[in-house]
Amino acid sequence: MTPQAATPAYRRLSVEERRRQLLDTALSLFAHRAPEDVSLDDVAEAAGVSRPLVYRYFPGGKQQLYEASLGSAAEELRECFDEPREGPLLPRLSRALDRYLAFVDEHDAGFSALLQGGSVVETSRTTAIVDGVRRAAAEHIYRHLGVAEPGPRLRMTVRMWITAVEASSLIWLDEGKQPPVEELRDWLVEQFVAVLLVTAARDPQTAALGAVLSDSGRG
Predict the structure, then answer these.
(1) Which of 74, 72, 92, 94 is nearest to 84 (CA)?
(2) The predicted structure's pLDDT at residue 181
(3) Is residue 25 a contact partner of residue 110, using CB atoms and an 8 Å limit?
(4) Distances (CA, A) of 157 to 81, 181, 202, 215
(5) pLDDT category, 69, cuts 50, 70, 90?
(6) Quick one: pLDDT at residue 9?
(7) The domain containing residue 137 runs over which residues?
(8) How distant, in Å, are the alpha carbons of 102, 109, 113, 164 from that of 172?
(9) Does a structural domain hold residue 29?
(10) pLDDT above 90 covers what percent of the chain?
(11) CATH number of the domain bearing residue 148
């Protein structure tokens, strides 16, 4: 009797594994299509499961799934600026921006829909998730600067720069991802130095960071 090839045993996913699978699938869809253009049927089909199963994990339907996948993306974005505080400042910032822009590149349509607003599924909760990413990025930058308690001018400068990074990323997508991403990254780092120098002329706390910046060669 000829032995038959063994068929791989079907592995039932745990609750957490299934939830993670659905989130990853939804995030992939939201990344390349506006949220209002993605249905639960789309998510179920892409994940290879039934629509009722999606509802079992996300009884709030598409809104709950969107917010959960947005939270997952936000966590990934927050980690972009979580660079070890070792070595010169500007190379650290360059590496953080490399990760941030890679995320923008991978999630182009979803990133645009998220930051530009206007989505039918946008709520105060989704807005708070996005603002949480901005605040987390700012906190990472303060730590990279070695500032425990930033004053209002420095806080305003850093938050303005983060807004400029977002706006530049959106324009970069609209311009067909031109200029090359490395050039965009370098330009954003130079913008960071420039706005700090402008603020330093009016703010002693920022002026005291001059030594940090002068020691921060591009490496």
Answers:
(1) 92
(2) 96
(3) no
(4) 17, 24, 12, 20
(5) confident
(6) 40
(7) 73-214
(8) 12, 12, 14, 12
(9) no
(10) 46
(11) 1.10.357.10
Can you tell me which residue has the tokens 């987390």?
136
Q: Which two tokens stand for residue 145?
A: 């600067």
Contact between 96 and 83 (Cβ < 8 Å): yes
Residues written for the chain: 219
Average pLDDT value for the chain: 83
Position 68 in a domain: no
**Backbone conformation region of residue 123, classed left if phi is above 0, alpha if psi is from -120 to 50, else beta:** beta
Longest Cα separation, the chain: 88
For 157, other C-beta atoms within 10 Å of its C-beta total: 22
Per-residue H/E/C for the chain:
CCCCCCCCCCCCCCHHHHHHHHHHHHHHHHHHCCHHHCCHHHHHHHHCCCHHHHHHHCCCHHHHHHHHHHHHHHHHHHHHCCCCCCCCHHHHHHHHHHHHHHHHHHCHHHHHHHHHCCCCCCCHHHHHHHHHHHHHHHHHHHHHHCCCCCCHHHHHHHHHHHHHHHHHHHHHHHCCCCCCHHHHHHHHHHHHHHHHHHHHCCCHHHHCCHHHHHCCCCC
10 in any annotated domain: no
pLDDT of residue 216: 54
- Residue 2: pLDDT band (50, 70, 90) is very low
Q: Is 211 left (phi over 0), alpha (psi -120 to 50) or beta?
A: alpha
Q: Is the Cβ–Cβ distance between 137 and 81 less than 8 Å? A: yes
**Count of the separate structural domains present in the chain:** 1
